Amino acid sequence: MRSIILTGLLSGLLLSQQAFAQQPNSSTNTQLSETAFQQPPAAYGIRCWWWWLNGNVSKQSITRDLEAMKAKGFSGACIFDAGGQDQRGNSNVPEGPLFGSPAWQELFRFAVQEAHRLGLVLSLNIQSGWNLGAPDVKPQEAAKRLTWSQTIINGGQNYVQPLPVPAALDGFYKDIAVLAFPYRDTTSIQPLHNLRQKAAFDEVGGSATDTRFLLNEDTANNKLVHAQHTTVINLTQKMNAQGVLSWKAPAGKWVILRFGYTLNGAEISTSSGKWQGLVIDYMSRQHFTRYWNTHVQPLLQSIGKDAGTTLRYLQTDSWELGGINWTEDFQQEFRNRRGYDLLPYLPIVAGKLIDSREVSNRFLADLRKTISDCIADNHYKVFQEKAAAYGMGIQPESAGPHAGPFDGLKNFGHSEIMMGEFWSPSAHRPLPESRFFVKQAASAAHIYNKNLVGAEAFTTIGHHWDDIIWKEMKPSFDHELCAGLNLTLLHTFTSSPPEMGLPGQEYFAGTHFNPNITWWKYSDAFWSYMARAQYMMQQGRFVADVLYYYGDHVPNIARLKEDDPAGALPGYDYDVINEDRLMALQVQQGWITLPHGMRYRVLVLPKHRVMSLAALQKIDQLVSAGATVIGPRTQRTVSLEKYTTSGKTLQQLVAHLWGADSTANQQPGSRAVGKGRMAWGYTAAEWLALQQIAADCHFEAPATDTFGYIHHRWNEADYYFISSRKQTPVKATVSFRVSGRQPEFWDPVSGHTQPAMAYTQANGVTTVPVSFAPYGSWFVVFRKPVPVTQQGTAATNFPEFRVTDTLQGPWQLHFDERWGGPASVEFPFLTSWTERPEPGIRYYSGSVVYHKEFNYDPKHQRIYLNLGAVKDVGIAGVKLNGKEIGVLWAPPYRIALDDIQPGKNVLEVEVINSWRNRLVGDRGQPAEKRFTKTNITIRPEWQLLESGLLGPVVLETQDQ
């Protein structure tokens, strides 16, 4: 049953149940549809990471899973073979067929055939686990890093000696070059700060770390160096294959560095069974192609025409392989991209200072940028090209949050689905900045003209079967919807063959979603909420006033929306752009535009005052053509590209944009440049307000930072998703920069729509009073023309509810005896099952039906039922007089009783809690006495969770 959820907050007309087929942004549908909103077409359903845990799946479990997904409105799934079942103290599960083996391919083909039968879209993670690799990856194909040895000799003689072999991991080593320079007393030289991170030996952090600090270096003793680059001699040809150097060294002392490369040590993570091995070289087209030809192409060929039709996308997971800084042809890649030879500067990687501290730092910035370019062009671009040959797109998590040596937005530029991730609250990632990573993916979609912004959703570590839908899942989803999310992939839906029992086999992390969860029966109530939101967010175009350029440094990863680097929030929204797409910007009638139509009022530059010469030249072009750009006076580049001439060019550009007098930029100001304007000292919000541009969305409430919003425009319709981030009900007066159209409330919880009766219009702004439930949300839609002078006719859009009766006294409860509960028991009053002495109730998990008869005296126009508190998952199905009337999963747990009868009525409320209490009850019991079976360890700190209908259950009416 696809349940209709009635919150009772709106009294609008019931909408047609008929859904129509529609693809996202279909050209045949040019306006929002209330019908599609209430019952979203299948194309807008959520998807999932379909975990083939340790390869332990069967044809039976495949069919069961896919049919369950289809029945609950999923649009598809990503086949994700992986391990992780035994991490963090959990138990193993049987090992299934090895990824890509004939037996695995048979299961894969069967899954594709079943998905084709059911009309589901599939994606495929192209390995088992993540950090792309395979058991057959040879060291030469694997991820690499630089290594070296140092020898100091006295010159003035013919030196014939073997040079020490640099440190090598697992015995793998290849030479690059032998370099020498005159020895100096360097005891007073301080090494560069953060050298390992600057030289890309290490990641810079795991949560979208701001890495601009890598651009800086202490230059107090700038000229105290080991050598000048002009004195570095290349001796590579003087060392033979046995590592013996034959060199007639000039007089004096010499430092000899033997450079080579070895493995970076990265291995495949969280993979099934024997799919273990090295991670491939992410900078090499050759090595990716070999992997593709061996492991991916045979899978695609095995499914024939379903490749590109049923199987639509290919995936790899996030970067977690540490730092890399070499590949076989890196020297030539560097010369081609940066325009100079890296060898004279390579000693910098070994901790030497060449020319100056500043020059050394500039070289390392060029090194990282070249690594980033190679990753984007030789890995993700090649991945995209290979997939496109089969009519497929890619959806890798290619842009963090681990801060590897890459430009996140540039990597995303090769994706069809921009895949981010977000986490539910957990001790592992408790803070917003370590949980929310979708804003970058959304910006990438907007600047690269892609429609789908996906996310690995509800990831956690430590939680198992204790998540509350309305309290933990919904606000996390809503937060990222405001950042631009429009396609959710649940993390995770584990395939669990029947013999694995209940709750069955599970991955150690993620929120658990599959037909084994207790509340699967009613899960489509929540999935429908998400599908409605995805329907809306996949239409139209994101509206933003501000475009923030995030620089050309590496690593570079845009952070969560609230990071707000342009200072646009809370009233204006923004996108983030990289150097790659900065070059595509144009100016049309003062708007900063991209070729596909995205447009912004202002471009904001980063505060670190560093700009590449190419970027600054583009900024100059844009401002001269009529753009408004806000940012501090650029002070420097951090690159050795065209180093001897770049300084003068930089000064000329800076003077043209900010003026010749740098002291004039110390206070906020602006100046006309060509047809445009250069401003400084302002946030984006301050500048827009100064130009009398009203906030796009403004909340008037006691705490305005407890709300989020996003604005889309589709043809003549503007619509906003607005959400409260408070756990309690809240009211706000919300202003929208729209006028001349009727505001409407579209409720994503129920699918109901209703025109706002209370609103005002003035100066191009419509102001609407809004009431939010705990963590509540609305779409506010403007599509039907009205006079700009028209005002609302009511004082409020949400009349108050008042209690007319409380359903007191005993309730009859019906448990499932198969799970230890009594067939029937009377509760004299509502209380948590955990408060009862009976073990079969206290430790019960699953469905319980509450039964109560009550009399109704018809005195009011419309009556609502309010269930009060529902624990622990917080989901309940309601029947009145034998008729199903809806599923409630979020406060205020209110539903209209339109079929209530005068006199006697029979109310049934089915409440379902999670597996947690039954698992606690089974803790310490021998296997034969347990009700449950799972590989997840029942931890000693797990406590019983309040469960059941706690009430008070009341009847209410709405004041008119």
What does this entry look like structurally?
This protein is an alpha+beta fold. It has 17 helices and 49 strands. The chain has an eight-stranded parallel beta sheet with strand order 13-12-3-2-1-16-15-14, with helices on one face. It has a six-stranded antiparallel beta sheet with strand order 18-29-30-36-32-33, covered by helices on one side. Strands 20-19-24-25-27-26 form a six-stranded mixed beta sheet, with helices on both faces. Strand 22 and strand 23 (599-600) form a beta hairpin. It is globular, with a radius of gyration of 31 Å. The model is unreliable at 1-27 (pLDDT under 50).
Q: What key phrases describe this protein's structure?
A:
single chain; 960 residues; alpha+beta; eight-stranded parallel β-sheet; six-stranded antiparallel β-sheet; 17 helices; 49 strands; 27% strand; globular; disordered N terminus
Radius of gyration: 31 Å
Kindly state the mean pLDDT as a whole number?
Answer: 95
| Helix run count | 17
Oligomer classification: single chain
Strand content: 25-35%
Structural class: alpha+beta
- Main beta sheet strand tally, sense and closure: 8 strands, parallel
Q: Kindly, what is the distance between the CA atoms of the first and last residues, rounded to a whole number of angstroms?
A: 34 Å
Uncertain runs are 1-27
DSSP, total strands: 49
Strand order of the largest sheet: 13-12-3-2-1-16-15-14
Q: Overall 3D geometry?
A: globular
Residues in helix, %: 10-25%
